[in-house]
Amino acid sequence: MKKMFLALAAASLVSTMAFAQDDYDYGDDYGTEASTSSDDGYTDMDSGDKPAAEEQPASDVDYKSMDDKDKKVSRNEGEMSSIFDRPYNLGARISLGLADFFNTPTTINETGAEEDAYKGWMGVQVALGFIFNYHINNMFSIVPEVNFEVRDYFTNADQSYPVTDDYGYFAGYATDVQFNLRQFNLNIPVMVRYNPTPQIFVEAGAAFTVNLYADYAVTSDEYGIDQTLDDWNCASTIIALQFGAGYTLGIGNNKFGDIGARFVLDMTKLSDEIEMKDTKTWSLQFFVTGYTPM
Known about the structure:
The chain contains two helices and 13 strands. It is mainly beta. The radius of gyration is 45 Å and the shape is elongated.
């Protein structure tokens, strides 16, 4: 009996160990190992026959590099280019300004005192032209220009002027008259421009001016007078110094413009006429330039 009990106990122990071994093998089939991918890229059980996850870049650096590449925006999509992206710029310009005389002779007035012979005169200046801006580097440029310029010096000095009627007979004197000295010039400045920043510039240079035509005229709105009295014998060529500053701005993509001011000081006397002696002119000009797209 005792031997039979021992035999049953031994059989029971062997059976228990075999069951435990089966549990271990079951875990191998359906446990952690069961979630691994097979050779064809699909999981055995838990994946639900879904494709394996996409492979990520090897490192964060690679991932960021790919991301930055996707975010790049071309210049045509909104990034403003610099004016120095081109070796030169062509454009058109307009300037408006005030002008006057200096080194004028003196005259004796009615009270016997000396006074400026051109007291009360003032001038206006208008110019249209073209500009060529050649960039030496990101700080310096050579800027030649060609401008057609008109200057009109005028005064409302209290002077009488004889008036004739429609038949050419003397009809009296007009006192409310305006006298004009007018010039039509071809102006060729050459400036050296310095850019401390891409937008701000200062410039200095010289200008060569050729007088195309000049006259002396009188006008009066009250008496309907508008007459050219004579050609004005002013200097045929004038050399001037010029100093200026301004700001360069973008107008849309790849289009640029300048706005600024320039002071012009003539070095050549205005006329060989004795009464003008060493009279010269100055002007303060305000300009706008528009560059063509390239």
